[in-house]
Amino acid sequence: MKSFVLTGIKSMELREVPAPEIKSSDDVLLKIAAVGVCGSDIHYYNDGKIGSQVVKYPFAVGHECAGIVEAVGSGVRGLAPGTLVAIEPAMSCRQCDQCRSGRPHTCRRLRFLGCPGQAEGCLSEYIVMPQECCFPIKLTAEQGALSEPLAIGLYAARKALPLKGANIAILGCGPIGLSVMLCARVMGAGRIFVTDPIPERLQVAAKNGADRSGNPETQDIVADIAAQKPLLLDAVFECCGKQSAVDQAIELIKPGGKLLLVGIPETDRVSMLIDKTRRKEISVLNVRRQCECLHSTLALMSSGMLNADFMITHRFRFEQTREAFELVAGYADGVVKAMIDFAV
């Protein structure tokens, strides 16, 4: 089968590789239908690593995907060939202390699609996943792929509860920031402020749920928001991985509020002004992917309450994967989400 693999820094090739096979009774062989390009994929493309997770070349990334069932193991029930499924990229052991305590996303033996040292990604014609990671959908393949970042947004929003009537800011409105925005709106958030240095992304956010948007490179974001909300904000979601955004968040959060770190920093360390963080008694919460939120996300999408189709700004054929990565890596042409369509 064909697979797009990273072969070095900012280098990837389309190669012929052995097709995956069903080995366990709960395995499902899937023909990939759509893959969304994620910011974490771009970290691996640009830098060859995210923190301690270092790529050993060649390696296929990709984890936002939907596929069509081709064949199933002997123990699989309720998944017939031809079924379109959204795919949960996290494969947990369900036996360790983390899994037993309701934290399968931090499983001690976690295998995650497209994560170095864990599992090859979905930028291939076929993959094999356990049945518990396959969710039948009556959505489009693109919507199935979008459900993964949306599930992260839902998990982040849930960690900020209570959100009903809460005034919040989202610093960075790429796909993850927009996912947080959509989910927070569904959960009843009050005023939602968003920031981003890319004008096109601000326009997208303003059209789809943000009450006010601003560019941190041309505006005093803290002063602008504080002028409208003198008591400051209940929660701030840092979704861009930038030190400057962390600094702004500390200034924007009211005493007793929450800072949720969702973005992936390019550096190994970030810092915060401990005087204000401590005196305000700000709760600092890290958001690691999503924790069993895919099923709820798909239900919201199916009901029409959660629609993120607008996020897809660019579409590519599988053979154009390198072009998709270059576009996203360069933040070019106002890109929000680049989608790779295997059916074209």
So, the CATH homologous superfamily of the largest domain? Answer: Medium-chain alcohol dehydrogenases, catalytic domain
Under CATH at level 1, the class of the largest domain stands as Alpha Beta
Largest sheet: 7 strands, mixed
Tally of structural domains: 2
Structural class designation: alpha/beta
CA radius of gyration: 20 Å
Mean pLDDT: 97
Broad shape: globular
Query: What is CATH's topology name of the largest domain?
Result: Quinone Oxidoreductase, Chain A, domain 1
Put simply, the count of helices is: 10
Q: How far apart, in Å, are the first and last alpha carbons?
A: 17 Å
List segments where confidence is low: pLDDT < 50 over at least 5 consecutive residues: none
Q: How large is the share of residues in beta strands?
A: 25-35%
Query: Secondary-structure element sequence?
Result: EEEHEEEEEHEEEHEHEHEHEHEHEHEHE
By DSSP, the count of extended strands is 19
> Which CATH-level-2 architecture of the largest domain?
Alpha-Beta Complex
Helix coverage percent of residues? 25-40%
Structure commentary:
This protein has 344 residues and is an alpha/beta fold. It has two domains: 2-136 and 308-341, Quinone Oxidoreductase, Chain A, domain 1, CATH 3.90.180.10; 152-286, 3-Layer(aba) Sandwich (Rossmann fold), CATH 3.40.50. The chain has ten helices and 19 strands. Strands 3, 6, 7, 10, 11, 18 and 19 form a seven-stranded mixed beta sheet that branches. It starts with a strand and ends with a strand. The mean pLDDT is 97.
